[in-house]
Amino acid sequence: MPLPPGTPDLEALDLLVSVADLGSLGAAARRHGISQPAASMRIRALERRLRLHVLERGPNGSVLTDAGRTVVTHARAVLAAAAALVEGVAEVRNAGASRLRIAASKTIADYRIPHWLAALRAVQPQVSVALEVENSCQVAELVRSGGADLGFVEGPHLPDGLSGRELGSDDLVIVVGAGHPWATRKRAVSLRELSETPLLWRESGSGTRDTLWEVLDDYGVPAAPAAELGSAVAILAAVRAGVAPAVLSRLVAGPDLRTGAVHEVPLADATVFSRQFRAVWRPGAPPEGPAELLVDCAARIESSR
Q: pLDDT tens for residues 176-186?
């Protein structure tokens, strides 16, 4: 509903309350950072709007009239409500700015995101992050559709229709179980031989799968998979069980390689098995605020690895 006629200006009410608190118009003017003539003009404008005489001016200063004291009593409640409104709006604004929706590929979510979020929290502990974990193709679609403010993907190329920033690289390694013939092999595996070997593959849309497929496709259509599994953890378990070789991120395979649960097989051209970690976002909507800070934290950590 519209405000009734004669609704006073909040700044003028605030000034009148200061006169009541401080005991003089001059002191009130100094509190508000204005001159005494300017303060006097505001009070006169307030009196005209209220059609009340609120301040008695005399040679020894100014004092509130009875009507002025009544106005001040009501003004305190109005000003308190206005302050609560401003504070509430600020809380809503800050809450919106401090919520960050991100999506990340499974490898990045498991092995890199925790480090990046720890760095973000060290400088902006108030930021609340919601993480959705999918494969790289699904992450890209979440960002395109607005389901995530920011995405982190792995793979040989920037996803179509998105902008992004390279954060660092990740090596892929060939791994086999301890009982597999390749575990004791001295000669490096060629890409052609790898292409002709049934492997354990990630599902379609995985960044690991896309990188591997792009490399092996130069040698003809890769052999039919020994199995397609939905996570690197499941593939690693199948490798340990001796099902078939697999190509996995060194981040994923590292612990089992160190314990000897799986063995790394040398590749004749290991340089081809490097892929990029990227932050991605919608074109025209680059990360800002907490999102930009998270990307910067990730890039700094990855550059130091």
A: 999 999 999 88
